[in-house]
Give the backbone structure.
Amino acid sequence: MADLTCDVAVIGAGTAGIAAERSARAQGAKTLLIDPDFAGTVCATVGCMPSKLLIAAAHRAHDARTAGLFGVSTSVSVDGAAVMARVRAERDAFAAATRAGFDDLPNGTCIRARARFTGPGALSLDDGRKVAANAIVIATGSHPMVPPPFRDIGGDRVLTNRTVFEQADLPKSLAVIGAGAIGIELAQAFARLGVRVAVFDQGDTIAGARCDAIHDALKAELAKDMDLFLGADVKPEALAGGIRLVWEEGDDTFDRVLVATGRLPSLDGLDLSASGLHLDDNGLPDVDPETLRCGDSAIFLAGDANANRPVLHEASTEGAVAGRNAAAFPDLTHATRSPRFTITFTDPPLVSIGQGPVDSAQIGTADYTDQGRAKVEARNVGLAQLYAAAPDGRLIGADLFCPGADHLGHLIAWAVDAGMTASDLLSKPFYHPTVEEGLRGALREICRAVPLDLPGDRDTGNPPGI
């Protein structure tokens, strides 16, 4: 007989799990939120927030070093221990705010334990209790993947995003294994804080850039701060106080290695084989991305644990959909999915929205190396590419690597989601001088090519580039 019964049991108290529990409870369901730690979300503890705190410090250092261009003289020194102390202090405040939210849940909702399946609607907790649920949401997140050669090296010489922010001081040198979003963000931040950085990746693409021109601009900018070794298969060798890396073209020694080779769904220990789900060769169930339902079961898989769209806003959306469907099961609603939207917080940011260049009937390009506001601020780097469909020039996606791309990207993502055409967007006001008005050239290029009548776009009549 079960010790605990509920309508919906949610395993994992991260972003997706919190959203799932809230959504299910809003439908009137009796819920349990099961987690061994209730430490706070990955974003607050080891992801978005501590990384952005480190990046913010790097921005200050870089701005100070380059102030001479504006006639401002300054001397820059970086106190690595103070940098890392602030990262942890502010990170802990964000995490504490997340944890405080658990106190607001109804009594008995939070169950501090590890859960595993003993049947389709049955869980066993590591404290000996049994749970019976009408439906279950799995929202256990993901964890860093560390390849065996690096896993075998002991001590704190090999870091991941879970451990890098616990360093008491900045290392003198750092090798980053993996040129994805996490690796590149942290690599540039550490480099601009005075750390000698080298990035290695077996592939040829940085941060998943989809457009060759965008990738070339990104690579050239990053190379100003660090060494880049793409297509490199490195082998580590432990040394006293450091690690030696060997690859086909050379070798080098570093104080620390940050492994950022991807993340894996955290499903180990759940004993999914007892859940009644059909599992593939990787031990993963088939998940409907619109309902988050696993097969024909009353089990739902949301957030990073399903490896579909591993970013925070998607995890929150998926959690809400999974929780609602779990509460209403077997009546299901389908998620209204927004266009794919990712930001890599390099300087300038790299942004990818919706469909890519191969799906586009027309591409409009905005060159930010000669854009007025960008030149004023000495940030004139990169470009933006907008993608549109025929016959009406409806915007379907974009790739950006330019000043303010994290903000421009939101405007474009909203326009794509709303089904706006290039002409629609061009008819909106563009204030002068802003980086936003740099997009007008790309929008006009699409309008001319589709072809569409150019609207009387509401600008100030400034010449190209201004």
